[in-house]
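ok so for the tutorial part 2 we go from a plain amino acid sequence to predicted structure tokens. step 1 is just haveing the sequence, like this:
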Amino acid sequence: MDPGAIPFASAREIAVAVGSGRISAGEVLQASLERIQATDDQLHAFRHVDVDGARSAAVAVDAARADGTTPGPLAGVPVAVKEQVAVAGLPREAGSLLLKGNIEASDGPAVARLRAAGAVIMGMTAMPELGHLAFGHSPLGPATRNPWSAGHTPGGSSSGSAAALASGQVALALGTDGGGSIRIPASCCGVVGHKPTLGRVPHAPLRAGFSPMSHLGPMARSVADTALLLDVIAGQDHRDPASLPPEGVRYAEIASSPPESGRIAWAPQLGRAEADAEVLAPCRAVVRALADDGFEVTEVDPFLDDWIEAWAVIFDVSLALNAGTQPEEMRGVSDATLVARVEHGLSVSATEFLAAEAARRDVWATFEQLYRDFDVVMTPTLLQPPLPVDPATGVTDAPDSWVERWFQHMYPFNLTGQPAVTIPVGLTADGLPNGLQVIGPRLADGVTLGFAAAAERRTGWDEAPPAI
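step 2 — the prediction. this is what the tokens look like for a chain of 468 residues:
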């Protein structure tokens, strides 16, 4: 493998090359570090680059191969980890001054599995404070920028992970998703993001109250690499009481041989808000191509009226517990938008919370009915292209009316816990990425990734990197 090709090589290509000795894990690491050094002053994707830890991991991979040990499935692959996930010895500050200086004593289950598979943990990627925003800024440092356009948001809250992937800093990344936080930035940055079935990937240790809707999942530049990563990190761990036993399939095999037929429910909108024509057109073209190739496609309108309020109640109550402090103490330290959400969470009554849970069951029932007739549901990921931000600060200057409707296709599937993956489908006239979302039945991550791979083959997305 040419070292110059490493930044945009697939995870599988890197692992095979390292495993066969055609290139060393040390050379891969050096290429990743050089790419970070060349681009991160512009992007601010990383909060902390663990140079020493990454070097030690790469040395260990090369030593094991030299000793004849069979390399793991991610041998030498550079991986970024969202700063909401526990990595031993590294800061877990979740974008907040409230957690400044917090260092984790041990790896979370997914990170431990990455290490066992031979991956090289590059460090912690930036996120908005406690994941409460769909944008890339926080009180801890400069805002993360979209590699395609500094004047548009990279999305959030897994902002740094998506930007690091799109810019070639790493081959794989971990994100979390409590209301679109994997899928929003993946769509904005032109990469793949999979929110697995709730519990498919164990998420521990969790901060108080963050378990009802928060998913830990894989991000990559292709469905194949996303599936490869999910094969490594999925599986039950009793430190996470919501975690699930294995599905019993190999996700990478499914992604490499996607289905050639099936029943697709195409839902161009899930509520009152409509997608912009520039977003809708490439998604509709992919769905039409699937229909032309023999898939059974039916347009549906699972009209939902109340999921946003229900999601906000559950999310804000969890956020208030997660913040662990009172609004008065947060003012001047935290984002005003976070303080407002915490105030709302603290004001919710038990009756209001149970009403939100009842609405959650209604959303579940709506989609459960759909999956009696269809294998997957497909929607535009976002209703608009990446929203504009101030070029100097990276903070959004979009009208509130835009922000409110921008990512309404995210919430329902955090309420239901179903798997949902976004794939890039093309660029707008302004050169900004668009995404198509594929949602499967609960527990059917393999089905979801298989249909996503089938759709990916019909996108025309050429994986051309952004000109950063």
